[in-house]
Amino acid sequence: MMLSFFDQFMSPTYLGIPLIALAIALPWTLYPTPTDRWLNNRVLTLQGWFINRFTQQLLLPLNQGGHKWAVLLTSLMVFLITINMLGLLPYTFTPTTQLSLNMGLAVPLWLATVIIGMRNQPTAALGHLLPEGTPVPLIPVLIIIETISLFIRPLALGVRLTANLTAGHLLIQLIATAAFVLLPMMPTVAILTATVLFLLTLLEVAVAMIQAYVFVLLLSLYLQENV
């Protein structure tokens, strides 16, 4: 029984071909494309407003050098939100529940921010490893601790996104299974369970958007330290 709960997180295959690539590429076909008309429809207007507001909020603490990352971070944000939201639909697969995919996104982007900091301002980048005014006996210990915390950052990015989405999907499946089991025996309790399931689904919609925003926000904070 427990194995069937985790089957939803297995990467589906068709004729031996993993379908995770299709699940990643499909969301891009759902976005409305801009037109040459002077006036856009409501969907395009709403999409443009959302992207503009998000970009302004994201780049507000960054200096001019960090604005080069606007297209990358905004595209990543929209991509993650779309994948997370589509994963809440029945009989769908959520690629962001795979730690390998999240680490594949987190490690290169984190490494790029570190390389930019070491290239542009190596003294300031290395200065983060040793806070000012540290007592001399604590210098080796603090350098080791700060170095470990630096390398844990991409792991924290990937694990946070994976754990939150996985826990939400598991909880939804557990409550849905309980509602179906209780329906013939205790209809009143089953209806209450279904109500809880509906509220939890709304919460998971919010979590799907918030986790995508947190992922990109933390990357922008790492970038802020190095530009």
Automatic annotation (TrEMBL):
It is a multi-pass membrane protein. Pfam families: ATP-synt_A. One of its GO terms (molecular function) is proton-transporting ATP synthase activity, rotational mechanism. Its main location: mitochondrion. PROSITE patterns: ATPASE_A. One of its GO terms (cellular component) is proton-transporting ATP synthase complex. The chain crosses the membrane at residues 12-31, 69-89, 101-118, 138-159, 171-199, 205-223. Keywords: ATP synthesis, CF(0), Hydrogen ion transport, Ion transport, Membrane, Mitochondrion, Mitochondrion inner membrane, Transmembrane, Transmembrane helix, Transport. SUPFAM superfamilies: F1F0 ATP synthase subunit A (SSF81336). It catalyses: H(+)(in) = H(+)(out). InterPro entries: ATP_synth_F0_asu, ATP_synth_F0_asu_AS, ATP_synth_F0_asu_bact/mt, F0_ATP_A_sf. Belongs to the ATPase A chain family. NCBIfam families: ATP_synt_6_or_A. Component of the ATP synthase complex composed at least of ATP5F1A/subunit alpha, ATP5F1B/subunit beta, ATP5MC1/subunit c (homooctomer), MT-ATP6/subunit a, MT-ATP8/subunit 8, ATP5ME/subunit e, ATP5MF/subunit f, ATP5MG/subunit g, ATP5MK/subunit k, ATP5MJ/subunit j, ATP5F1C/subunit gamma, ATP5F1D/subunit delta, ATP5F1E/subunit epsilon, ATP5PF/subunit F6, ATP5PB/subunit b, ATP5PD/subunit d, ATP5PO/subunit OSCP. This is ATP synthase subunit a. It comes from Nematalosa nasus. The lineage of its organism: Eukaryota, Metazoa, Chordata, Craniata, Vertebrata. The gene is ATP6.
